[in-house]
Amino acid sequence: MLTISTTYLPSIHTHQNRWLTSLKIALVATLAGNPLAISALAKDLAISQSRVNVDSVANGVHLYGESLRPNVIGKEYIIFEKNGSKAIGAFYLPRSEFSCFYGQFKDARLNVTLFDPFDHRKYTFFLALAADGLTASKQPMLGQPTYQPLSKISTNDRRILAACKQQLQKSK
Question: What is d(CA 130, CA 52) in angstroms, rounded to the nearest whole number?
Fold first, then answer.
């Protein structure tokens, strides 16, 4: 017999996809004899509830980093300005290079076009939005990092953002 705790019901009812969550619970109850099916559905449910609505990312300047501390050498950071569904920003390494990008928010992701400052080529990938930060789908500079939000935006962060806004205006 499968028992569903009522402690989870308030969060389920506030989730945007209530009908989908209810359907998954019904499937879990139906497939109670199949542990592999239950495990797969539970994982999918956890992933869907961790996604962030694009509208929850406010217009304005945002800073994320691989480290929760700013300016850690060897860690990658992303600064961007969101205006509606569009964004302009940069990936950077402290005391090193930065690469400018523009992007479009859609569903639970930011679709990015990155400009390589050395070979002047464009690269596309996306950043998945989650409650705990952003995760890159491909290697922006140093791998497939997960970026956590940082609250303090420095003068240097704003300088990098301004340089990218100016550069991207020229290239359009």
Answer: 5
